[in-house]
Amino acid sequence: MDMKVAKKKLGLKEKYRLMTRDLGWEPTYRAKDEVFPYVNYEGIKVHDWDKWEDPFRLTMDSYWKYQAEKERKFYAIIDAHAQNNGHLNITDARYLSALKIFLQAISPGEYAAHKGFARVGREFPGVGTQVACQMQAIDEIRHAQTQIHALSNYNKYYDGFHAFADARDRIWYTSVARSFFDDAMSAGPFEFMIAIGFSFEYVLTNLLFVPFMSGAAYNGDMATVTFGFSAQSDEARHMTLGLECIKFMLEQDPDNLPIVQGWLDKWFWRGFRVLGLVSTMMDYMLPKRVMSWREAWEIYGVENGGALFKDLARYGIRPPKGWDDAEKAIDHMSHQFMLGLYQWSFGTSFHSWIPSDEDMDWLSAKYPTTFDKYYRPRWDHIRKLAAAGTPFKNFGLAKLCQTCQLPVVFTEPDDATMSCHRETEYKGEKYHFCSDGCQHIFDNEPEKYVQAWLPMPSLFQELDGDIGAWMNWVSLRDGEDNGDYSGSRDQRNFDQWRGMATSNT
Amino acid sequence: MSTVFIALQANEETRPIIEAIEIDNPLAVVNRQPAMVKIDAPNRLVIRKETIEEQIGREFDLQELHINLITLGGNVTEDDDSLTLSWAE
Q1: Residue A164 — pLDDT band, cuts 50, 70, 90?
Q2: Domains observed in chain B
Q3: Does the keyword Cell inner membrane apply (chain A) (predicted)?
Q4: Position A273 in a domain
């Protein structure tokens, strides 16, 4: 009988060398500068691309194997969700607003990240970098697809999911996320890596995927937990790539430090503004809450971000410029966003609502220094107006920040009773900003941001301010997708179907 | 001192991995949250292939961690036998 002799397996380091470095070559028909034309103009100096190593040393053969395993796990749960009335097992249909925002604003961001990594994978000359970017490009398209697929099960039963692609392109609040990714994709390859790989992935996505997805589990939504954690399992690799990228730039040449620091300042603030909406999803939109936005910030912002910047101090990096302003905003932002979403709910393809007494008690326990002082009185007043049959609706259009594209709804970092507004005049035109952070970003690159497509001015420019025509254009069905949750079709259907699922009459 | 951490999905595959991490890192703190487990440690956390194999009773490739990994914090160093997370002291 033949004895099977197991072939000696290659060690991780050897395999990584063979499957990355060994696949590269020096071009001979054309000069290297012609093959990689975008790698120098940002001013980043690289002396040795081979110094770039993926600490996980993941090679393509293992990549496919583990990704296939993740997909099998994912589809097992998606099938179970569809077969077991998963759409009725959520705690409350209010929760769906968070998913609608996710699908309209965040899943398209995954797709944008896919395009961006496919591009920078081509533009970087280092082979290790190319392989890591290629994997991330494939990851990101997988995330977009699995998210859309998982949420399509809810689209069969609930409003607001049906036209996410139109919402992504046209509705006002999604332009916040879209402009973030467009900004990154129209930057050079190194800035793109800092924007997405480092600021977004390493510093900020934990806040989105970890406590929010754990919250989805708490709210009975196995479909979302599954795509969230399946995506996040790639995210750990992306974060490591982002951190590796920043360390690589800083180790290659001391001249890179000021450029990298400038990008960090910019992209921390851009990311903080985009992910700000997650604060409202966590504090207001999860019927059962795992932790508050403040608590999540303490863990993933203060503790982890703090550790990271302490670690990078050895290269001369300091925490991003907007760090202190971010800290001051944490106890206010979810309330300010929710008040904004409620008053403009005619124009949102998801529902908002007035928090219940129980919700407000939770909020005052979690935000002892701000909620009762600044926000409960406003909700009480709004509730009185609703009870009197004159709900507080703002049919005016919000003034948008030229940089982050959010409505200017925030307060001064040191005075929560004073609305924060900045203005810059550039070539005879006035531009508005929500914060010092966004104004600084504009002032550094005005020629980029004057070209921003802003939804509110466009409504007047292209549709003469006709709200009905605008709703058709963004595929928003008035009275179905938008407005208050209370009295909505989602609420009626959920209550009725849940009743049918738990009784026989 | 800074905290490094790793978060894994809470499931049957990760239970022995978490036990192995606890064995190898006496200072680690295990936080159980809905659907996930987050393990914090001061400055340094090491995950050893051998300890995991003792817990599960079969060969284990450390890269299998990717399947159930949710997130981590710290600089990653990986070879065939261990994965280490650390912050500069």
Answers
A1: very high
A2: 3-86 (3.90.56.10)
A3: no
A4: yes
